[in-house]
Amino acid sequence: MCYYKKLCFLLLIFICQVLFLFGQGNCLIYAEDSGERKACELSYRAIEYRQGSKESQLLFDKAIEVGPKYAWVYYQKSVPFFKRGLFAEGVNLINKAIELEPQNYLYYRAYWYFYNRSYEFCIRDLEALYTVHKDFYTAIPSGELEMRLLLAMAYAQSGDVSKGINWALNLMDTYKSQPHLKGFYDHFCLGILYYQNNQFDLAEAEFEKQLMVQDNFADTYYYLGLIKEKEAEHIAAQGYFKQALARMNQEHGGYSLNFFTEFNTKKEDVEKKIIN
Amino acid sequence: MKNIYFLQTCYILLLLCSFGCSSENKVVLIAKAEIPSRNHDLSYTPYDAKFDNPNYIICDSTGISSGRNRLQYIGGTNKLRKDITSKYVYRPDYEPFTGYIVIRFLVNCEGQSGRYRVQSLNLDFSPSNAPSDLLNHTTEIVKSLDNWTKSAVNGPKKEYSKFINLKITNGKIQHVLL
Fold first, then answer.
1. Most buried pick, A69, A221, A228, B9, via CB within 10 A?
2. Residues 126-145 in B contacting A (C-alpha not used; CB under 8 Å)
3. Is A70 a domain residue?
């Protein structure tokens, strides 16, 4: 019994360590009167104000002045710059955060590179994150996609679809031991990569799995329609295109998303496919 | 049992060491001049006599809305992309430029656009020197767009900041990023 108590105690220490080292938000982990502690406290005061407001920016500046080695402040200060198209300033700030803690902030720069179609730089950052820093799981800021899916799509957009597929499969491997981590659009992403690689049977299998996860997502039906069209199953293809359009028109809770850059489905493309 | 105590002690030592090491090992030089500092809301663009019409007034520099969909274009984003690309005239002297041209502007309480700013960047977002004719041409295109509509939810007096990012490859517009 005592043996189990000791094991539990060790486990508790381990959990505390993980939370302390990798969680944001506890300024007490920094030594009292240290620059990092002061910068941390000022940063938390700053985020109480509206993002991008003068008050928050001035508090971030003060935090950087007292604790220039505190990475989170550079990240937090960079966010409103990026959101307002002030990319040069934003990247200067996130570069500082990456210098200090690459494992925690590479993903954020990669995210902005990806959505601005700078795929080469996105690949460089995410290869470093997963290959050098052995990141286990990091999602985009809004949470819908794991960063390996962005890496996979970036490779596909740069002409190396097979490498992209390998990264998506690498992510899928994670789910064998951690099934609860599986995202809402993982099968869809792998499906579009297989489709791009002309592996239509594998693509169809992934899109079918995607329908099991979420059947209101319009884009899956569009790609299934494209596959049926290639197989000359025109009636089935038309059925899928009509289902895609209905969901794009938000019928029965349907929706589309713009997370996939050039793989996004345009409503006008779906409309063109439908033969009246 | 002794093993457990031994493991526990090692783990605690490791834990203490990891705290100590994490802040001491890194020597990072932070050049203060590179940190952008603004004494106003980031959505606001202050008046600059070099570029701006002195009669262009911003009613409330602290209440400018900057969300991507707050200021909309009549006809939607596809129409906006088409309006920009159809007005763009390629010239061979633009060919060496690959990177971004980011054009920012404000729409004030009277519904007028102004305070246009343009910046060219490399693909890693570092500042770049695009041909000045290319910067002028793309800025004039954005200035000529007059189909902006304010969100009805916020009322007609609400002020907005907006940016349009053009990804240029070899002097041609590859993407209009909104």
1. A221
2. 126-127
3. yes
Choose the final residue of a domain: A69, A100, A131: A100
Report pLDDT digits (tens) over A233-267: 999 999 999 999 999 999 989 999 989 999 999 99
Average pLDDT along chain A: 92
* CATH code, domain carrying A94: 1.25.40
Count the helix, strand and coil residues of chain B and give each as a percent rounded to the nearest 5. Answer: 30, 25, 45
| ipTM of the complex as predicted | 0.86
Q: CA B162, CA A21: separation in Å to the nearest integer? A: 38
The pTM score is: 0.86
In a domain, B10, yes or no: no
State the total domains in chain A: 2
* Any domain includes A276: yes
User: B38 to chain A: which residues are within 8 Å by CB?
Assistant: 54, 57
For B5-49, how does the pLDDT look when each residue is reduced to its tens digit (9 = 90+)? 554 554 544 444 444 333 333 334 444 547 888 999 999 999 999
Q: What residues of chain A lie within 8 A of the CB of B32, using their CB?
A: 64
The parent domain of residue A255 ranges over 209-276
CA dihedral B173, B175, B106, B160 (to 10 degrees): 170
Q: B178 to chain A: which residues are within 8 Å by CB?
A: none
